[in-house]
Every structure is written in C-alpha cells, then in structure tokens.
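[Meeting: bench + compute handoff]

Bench side (C.D.) handed over the final construct sequence. Compute side (W.E.) agreed to return the predicted structure before the next meeting so the bench team could plan truncations. Sequence as handed over:
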Amino acid sequence: MKTLSRFSHKIIIVILFSALFGIKPLIASSFCLPFEGKPMNEINTLSDAIQHWRSFAGGRVKAGNELINSIKNNDELKNYVDELTEKVKNLLLIASLTEREGEYCSSSNPGYRGMNCYPLGSFKMDIINYSVKWTATDCNNQKREVIGTLIVTFIFDDNWDFEKNPQYGAWKNFYRENLPSIYAGCGAAFSIYGTIKNETKISITQVCQ
C-alpha cells in the first residue's frame, strides 16, 4: 500500500506539472483517469456533460430545457435583449402616425455575443434575427399607445473540451481548462447545440403631432 501510495503521489505531481505547463499529451492520453461514463441524449447540467465526455461518444448533443432556461436567465443575454429593446422603443417612437400597425425586422444577421454559462463555459451565441410586430391606438389628447412583442432568435453550437483558450493567460487556462480536465478524466470532445427564442413585451407612448 505504501508503494502504491507513493506511485499515486508521483502521478498526481506529474499531472499537476503537466497541467501547469500545458503538456497536454500527459493528461489527454497517458495519465487521464478512466472514469465510467454514458452517452447522453441531451445536456442540462455539468454532470450530464461530464458523463457524455467520459463515454467517448462525441458528436453533437442538444441542450435540454434546463440548460436553455439557464442561458435565458444569463445576465449577458438579458443585457443584450435590454439594449435591443431600447433600440426598438426608439424606432416605435418615430413610427408613422398614419399607420395603425407594422413590423420591424433585422435587415441582416446582427452578429454574435460572447457569453459565459455553466456547463458551457465561455461560448459564442449567434444572433440570427429579431423582429417586432406592433399595433397602435388612435390619437387621444395628442398621444397614442404603441405596443408590440420583440422576438429575438439565438443559436449556439459550442465545442465541449478542455483545449487551451488563447485569450486566457497561463494561470487562467490552468484553473479553467487543465484542472477540470483532470477531474473529468479520459474522454472525447463533443458539441452542445440549441436554439433560443426570447420574447419581450414593449409598450411606449407616442406623441401625436
């Protein structure tokens, strides 16, 4: 037992040394820990992701409702929707007074936002499009109410692995990528994908002039 203990300590030291200095082959092949895993049909939690990783199943796995809701409640996503809501409100304030209804749509792909959410970690959220259908009341006392629903569609397809992030420094890569890879053990990279539709009610008072 003492010999085994000494050997285990040596392995731990080698693994930590490898993680610290970025020697990936020592972790990814020779010294990763062979935990049992199982393929998952959807990913909701960090435990789900680790189970699929350890199964070596790879491929693409859809995000489950729990993960989708977690992303919807992410502050970074909420902040973007808030910014877009203010932009749309400003458009509604100058809507033609001769129109009682209308629709604004994004003319092209609005781009993407970098976000961070477990179990995805840092990932890219593509913003596919947004639109708002609105209706307005008749003018009364020099004003009218304009209401609508802003719909924003996002998609993501994130690689789940422990590769170094070039935007991180050595220390951040160590505790964000290398240390978790030791806990996860042997496995195969895969991607987690999903679509999110966010709906926001909008109401403004437009001045009739």
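W.E. noted at the follow-up: Residues 32-207 form a domain with the Beta-Lactamase fold (CATH 3.30.450). C.D. will use this when planning the next construct.
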